[in-house]
Known about the structure:
Elements: H1 4-7, E1 15-20, E2 41-42, E3 46-47, H2 49-58, E4 63-68, H3 73-82, E5 93-98, H4 112-117, H5 120-126, E6 130-135, E7 139-140, H6 144-154, E8 158-166, E9 174-178, E10 184-189, E11 203-214, H7 215-226, H8 235-246, E12 249-253, E13 269-270, H9 275-284, E14 312-314, E15 316-317, E16 320-321, E17 323-325, E18 328-329, E19 334-336, E20 339-341, E21 344-345, E22 350-351, E23 356-362, E24 367-368, E25 373-379, E26 384-385, E27 390-391, H10 395-401, E28 403-404, E29 410-412, H11 414-418
Parallel strand pairs: 1-4, 1-6, 4-5, 8-12, 14-19, 17-20, 18-21, 19-22, 20-23, 21-23, 22-24, 23-25, 24-26, 25-27, 25-29
Antiparallel strand pairs: 2-3, 6-11, 7-13, 8-11, 9-10, 9-11, 15-16, 28-29
Amino acid sequence: MRDDSRTNRRLARTAMAFVLAGGRGSRLKELTDRRAKPAVYFGGKSRIIDFALSNALNSGIRRISVATQYKAHSLIRHLQNGWNFFRPERNESFDILPASQRVAEDKWYLGTADAVTQNIDIVESYAPDYLIILAGDHIYKQDYELMLEQHVSSGADVTVGCIEVPRMQATGFGVMHVDENSRIIDFVEKPADPPAMPGRPDIALASMGIYIFATKFLFDLLRKDQEDPNSSHDFGKDIIPHVVKNGKAVAHKFSDSCVRASTEEEPYWRDVGTIDAFWEANIDLTDFVPKLDLYDRDWPIWTYAEIVPPAKFVHDEDGRRGAATSSLVSGACIISGSRVDKSLLFTGVHVHSYSDVEHCVIMPYAEVHRGAHLKRCVIDRGVVIPAGLVVGEDPELDARRFRRSEGGVCLITQEMIDRL
């Protein structure tokens, strides 16, 4: 029997996704010296922003806007290369909205809400019924149509996407205090003692930075906020608390709309905002049964796919055998008489003979010369690792030469190599 609730979806086609992608992500240190956090590479082929964009596309949303600000060239180039397939004649649109002083010569985007406010005229020209505000810097798979359905059926002024986390791990989030009907009765930013969910004293609801509004309601709110000299023009600090106090704000649990393949046991959401979290989320993909399934063809992660030759493994002699185990190796990689284990190699990485690479995330077109031994590293795009370099065996030496994280992961950039 046909499932009409799935086949007759309409709400997503009346909505626009507005992706906030202007943040630097300073906790990623040198990885964001040249690119915004949403443009940081992830998973062998993708960028972080591809997850929010793919969720929107797979949910049936065909109008998308992306607001950029900090060092946006890498991000904009990726969006132009990989997301240029939307067609106006099919009532589709894809707008890149850099902070361009459209309102006044001295005004860049002042906050997340202001990024939307400055583009109200552009959004209004498409006349979407609903606006889905998304952060462009998280890794997850979610069907926004299900969240839209809850928003409409509940009569909420705003619906806030939330993840369930152990209560005392929620101190770094904006936390929703909800009643038994999921109505938000208080919104607390980074509380020392987070409020628990009703009937679940050890679990708190933390904001994912996903908000759904009726477009007209939101724009009325934003115009009023724009006139408030005391506002920081931010969704988390100003807009959401205002609706909680003066309207109806409802929480939506991520577990109710997350997309899981048959092998994914739990809802997967990660903020890869630190070197350790970024490294761990990438290395997790090399597990025999990873927590996040990138091979799920029912919910593909769209991205810019370079036209490159297949990966190549060469030499087969004792001590000089091109081999990779428990690893993801992308196109145009050459594993030449070297060993790669539990690592993720992006496009075009070349590992030369007699090298060992273990638990490493190596970004596109990096090169590892002969006899190098690398453990627990994140290597930036295009870095040339000199012959014989050893990283991951002497913590004190590593910390003097490279960026070594609290978890013992070394971030290596070309500038660091040049100083050796």
